[in-house]
Amino acid sequence: MNALKRIVTFLFSRLFVVALMLLVQMALLIAVLTHYSQNAIYLYLGLNALSFFAVMGVVSNHENPAYKMTWIIAIMLFPLTGGVFYLLLGNKRIPHKMRNKIKNTSFVTREFHGENRLCETQLEPKNSQLAIQSRYIYNVSGFTAMGNTANHYYALGDDAFPHILEQLKKAEKFIFLEYFIIRPGRMWNTILGILQKKAADGVEVRVMYDDIGCINTLPPEYDQLLEKSGIKVRVFNPFRPRLTPLANYRDHRKILVVDGNVAFSGGYNLADEYINEFERFGHWKDTGFMLQGDGVWSFTFMFLQQWVSCGKTTELIDYDAYRPTLTVAEQDGLVQAFDDSPLDRFNVCETIYRNMLSRAQRYIYIATPYLILDSDMENTLCNAAQMGLDVRILTPSIPDKWYVHLLSRSYYNHLIQAGITIYEYSPGFMHGKMIVADDEIATVGTCNMDFRSFYLHYECGAVFYLSSMVGKVKADMEATFAVSHKVTLEEARKISLPMRVVRAFIKLFAPLM
Question: Please, what are the averages of pLDDT over each run of 10 residues along the chain (513 residues)?
Fold first, then answer.
């Protein structure tokens, strides 16, 4: 009975209806093009010519080679319709007005953050390699390395939740929340109760959530329901049942800011599985951090920029009114926020990860729930291990998406042969995204090691230099390795022929996952 109820609920859900409408559109388009091309030689030749020029365009653009290969194969397999579908779904050409807006984003960020002074005065004298990383982040995004910031690391979403509630209750001026997924339950309902009370007391409350991320968790027009409580709401990139590449670009960031003095970020969304209120895929391990002090400013600014960008009309923001007022006289290394947009030409997250791999001297530990690599990243990982570094990768044992987990495991054989140690989190699903290297640098954020995070999502996080946070991340990683399964080369190789075929087929479409 429960199974039948779930099936009926799914069939009437917004996700199913929208997916069905998209499939109908695709089917109709294919049927029309196929029918008329059979009866009109000029249309037939035109469609084939379009596919040819689409392939030429794919080859000449600056996208990831694996992404280009996927589309080339698709177009060549379906020459009549492949070119059309590439123009509708794969072409990432950005309108001129939007391109100028994106181009100016980093300049505006630099204007409000100033020069990357602490990189030159504190990082460069101690470690020139860390300074190179900091300069890269500053040059492409505008965010500076900051001191005078207290940091707290959370090895589980369960640990972060009480601190989130504590800080929300202290809010006096404003609360900003930006999340990929919001799901009603103990976590969100408790937070919502505080937000509604604070809004009634005159605190400025802004909530932003991704429409696709919440398509199966929130009812339609949920934003209007929140607005009745005095909460300002924006839905990022509302999903419409039409064929467009813009539907791929999602806001995967997780940001919570209170009064400009406290910021939370990391892997966890606002749903009960992230705090193990109920078991969904075994024990759910997620990680994050809280900042207090100067370092919060970058996350406040990051939120406000995204808020303005997804508004229907241009909103003038007095950014200076949201600056930190809390003084933290704490010299615990430096912290530098970063964000990543799919609409510019900078793959910030991927480059940060690659820089850490290329410049590590002794070890580098990586945690990611999804391991979907292009050839360059795979080679960078293998090269690091072959140069004698202790390279370890932590992935889930129980997946949330079977096909992604299948694809992740397809890389194990090559990676282990190169000397990389792979662990699967035995208690359940590992959703944290952390990298730590050489006791000097660590990053914690929202970016998975896959194509979708590197190329299609808005992401964010923070890099910690010569900070106690580095030791905290390392200690958590080592404790997690101890309760995880170390994958052997024999296990990685012991794959049946049918499974190899399935993996190879899925791998063709890895850049679209």
Answer: 57 60 64 64 66 66 68 70 64 56 65 88 93 94 93 96 97 97 96 96 96 88 92 88 70 96 96 93 96 96 90 79 86 92 84 94 96 89 95 95 88 94 96 96 95 89 96 97 96 85 76 65
Give pTM, 2 decimals.
Answer: 0.86
Q: Return the half-sphere exposure (C-beta side, CA atoms, 13 A cut-off) of residue 146.
A: 26
> CA 213 to CA 210: how far, in whole Å?
5
With helix as H, strand as E and coil as C, how does 290-340 read? EEEECCHHHHHHHHHHHHHHCCCCCCCCCHHHHCCCCCCCCCCCEEEEEEE
| Three-state secondary structure call for residue 175 | strand
CB count within 10 Å of CB 96 equals 8
The angle that helices 14-39 and 2-11 make with each other, rounded to 10 degrees, is 50
Asked if residues 343 and 472 have their Cβ atoms less than 8 Å apart, the reply is no
| Alpha carbon distance 177, 251 (integer Å) | 12
From 198, 304, 197, 229, select the one nearest 260 (Cα to Cα). 304
Six-digit token string for 296: 């919060």
